[in-house]
Amino acid sequence: MIFIRTRACIKCKQYVPIHPGNRENKVKVNNFEENHQGHTIVTLELEEIKGEYANAVAEPDEKTASMQA
Ligand SMILES: [Zn+2]
């Protein structure tokens, strides 16, 4: 079983999945942390937050961009 860790903002109920070694993902995680500065950001397993939190990086244009890359 693969556990995916996420950075999650408790205040906004949003998360970003962490993919170690993925440079593009690292940027997204950093951006997420910047966007949620001053909020409470925690590291959680994706399994723990599924359904309750929204994926902060699952925006339509971003998805298209990564599919083209
Ligand atoms: Zn937040």
Description:
This protein is α+β, with helices and mostly antiparallel strands. It has one domain. The chain contains three helices and four strands. It has a four-stranded mixed sheet with strand order 3-1-2-4. Strand 1 and strand 2 form a beta hairpin. It is globular, with a radius of gyration of 12 Å. The termini are far apart. 14% of the residues are buried.
How are the secondary structure elements laid out?
Blueprint: E1 5-9, E2 14-17, H1 23-35, E3 41-45, H2 46-49, E4 54-55, H3 60-68
Parallel strand pairs: 2-4
Antiparallel strand pairs: 1-2, 1-3
This protein binds zinc ion.
Zinc ion binds next to loops.
Please describe the structure with a list of short key phrases separated by commas or semicolons.
69 residues; alpha+beta; 4-stranded mixed sheet; 3 helices; 4 strands; globular; binds zinc ion
